[in-house]
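ok trying this again, last paste got cut off
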Amino acid sequence: MCGISGLFDTQGLRSYDRALASRINNIQAHRGPDEDDLHLEPGLALGHRRLSVIDLATGQQPQFNADASVGIVFNGEIYNFQELVPELKALGYVFRTRSDTEVIVHAWSAWGTACVHRLRGMFAFAIWDRAQQSLFLARDRMGVKPMHYAWLPDGSFIFGSELKVITAHPGFVREIDPKAVEDYFSFGYVPDPRCIYRNAHKLPAAHTLLLRRGETDQPAPVPYWDVQFTNDNPIEQADAEVELRERVRESVKLRLIADVPLGAFLSGGVDSSAVVATMAGLSDKPVQTCAIGFDDPRFNESEFAQQVADRYKTDHRLEIVKSDDFDLIDTLAWLYDEPYADSSAIPTYRVCEMARKHVTVALSGDGGDESLGGYRRYRMHLGEERVRNRLPQGLRQSVFGTLGRLYPKADWAPRMFRAKTTFQAMAMDSVQAYHHSMSHLRADQRARLFSPAFQRELGGYNAIEVFREHAQRAQTDDPLALIQYLDYKTWLVGDINTKVDRAAMAHSLEVREPLMDHLLIEWLATLPSDLKIQGGEGKAVFKKAFEPLLPHDVLYRPKMGFSVPLAKWLRGPLAQRMRESVLSQRMLDSGYFNATVLERMVKEHLSGQSDHSTPLWMLIMFDAFLRQNEKSAPV
C-alpha cells in the first residue's frame, strides 16, 4: 500500500522543482514509510511513498519498463498478477521484478486503456507513456483506493492519493464548493466526484482519465465497469449457499499473498467472522486477529469476536478502548482533508493502530452489508415500498405529507414512536425516500441550519441530485437492488472505503477487502433479492451459508455496528469543546449557518430537551476542517 503523486504539463515541457515535488509527495509519508522516490523529466514529476508488501527487494517505484518508455506510480494490490505474468511473457514482455506493479506496466503496453479490464484488485495508478506523451489514471471498480486531481492555474495537472497532496501545492486555490457543503450536511461526507474545494475532484470508482500533451480541453473521466443487477439467477438456495461460500473462499485466498505479516480484523460481526473462518480453513498456522472493545457494554462486541477466535484458535489480541476516546477530532480532520462526520472513524483508527503493532496487512469484512442486504434501513425501505406501491402518489403526499409535517420530532421516545421521518418518506418517491433516510440532516433541517445568504448561493441545488444521477444509471426496478446500487456509488465509496483507507494508512497498514471483489459483486447482483432478505432477516443466504462455520449467536444476534456514545459525550466531557466549536467565530463568520439555530441546538442538547448529537458532531467536524484548512494553507 502506498501514496502516489504527480504533476503533468499538458501544454509544454516546463521543469518542475524537485523540492516542491518532494514536499507534496512526502506530505503523505504515512501512507508509505518504507521508501520514497521521485522521477522528474521535462513536463512531468512522479512521486511515490512505499509501504513494502510484495517483492520487498525490487518493487520500488516509480517503476519503468526496460527502455524507460512507460512508467508508473501505483497504490494498491493486483490480486491476479501472478496469472497475468505468463500471458504477458508469451507476448514478449520481460520481467525484472516479482511485483504486481510491473504487471500493470506491461499490461498497459499490451492492451492500452483496456488493461484495467484485466486487473482484479484494489488500485489507483498513473501511467506515463513517453511515446504517446500521455498520462493515464485509473481507479479500482469499488473505489477502495483513492485518487484526487486538479488543474492548477498555470495549466499543470496535479494528482495524489490524498487531497492534501493537492492543497499542499502553493498554486492551488482553496475555494470551498457550496455544493460540497450541502452534500456534506446531507451525507456526512463529500461524495465522489466532488471535493470540498471547487477546483479539485475525486476520480470516481471504476473510471479512468487519459490526458495527452497538447490537447487543450480538460478530458472527462470515462467509466470502464459497472455492476448490473439482473436478480435473475435461477439457482436454488441450497446451491447458492454452497457457491457463495466457495466464492468467498476464492476471494479470501487471493488476498493472502504477502511477503509481510498478515492478519484480520475480527469485530464479532457476521462479515469479519466469515472472513476469519475462511482464512482459518486456508492456513496451517493460527490466523492473527485483532479486535477492540469498549468499556461501555452497549457498544462492546468483543465477546462475540472471542467466540470466533476460540473456535478457530486464532492468535487473538483485544484492546479495550475507553468510551470517552474522543481526542482524535483534530487528527481526523488532518487525515480526511475534508469534512467527514462518521464517528466510527474513531474506533476504526484505534483498531488500525492496534493491528499495525502486529501485522502489516489485515483483511476486513467491509462490503458485506451493501452486497447482501444487511442494513436495517434496507428492510425498512422495502416495507415502505410495499405501502408506496399500494397507494397513489397523490394520496400518499396528502396523507403522509401532512402527518410528516405535524408529527413531533420525538428523539426522547422509544423507537416505535419516532415516526416523523417515516411519515415524511412515505410521501416521497423511492429515490427521494432513500435519500431522506440516509441523510444525516434532512432537507428541511438543512434549510433551517443554513443562512439565507448561503441558500441563495446554492441556487436551488439539493444533495438529492447525487442520488438522482446515480439512479438514472442503475438499470433496475428491483427496490432492494436500486438502493444497493445507490450505496455502492455513494456510501460504500465515500464513507466506508474512505474511512478505512485513511484510518489504516495513518498507521501504514494495508487493509484488503475480500467481500468487495468485483467478481463476487457481479455474481451477487444476479441473485434474487429474496435470497438476501427473508422474513425480515438481512444477509439471509450469507448467514445460512456460514452456519456450518460460525456460532449461531454471531450470525443471528442484532447488528450492533461500530458506534460511539455521541449524545453522552456532547453532554459531558465534550460539552465545552462542542460549544466552542459550533459557536466559534470561525463558524459564525463562514456565512454558511444561521447563528440562531446553532445556539438553539447547543442549548437544547445540553439541557436534554432534544438529541442533536448528529448535527452537532457534523458541525464540530466541519469546524475542525475549517481550522485545519487555515492552519495548513501554503504561505
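PB: full thing came through this time. Residues 38 and 47 are 5 Å apart (CA to CA).
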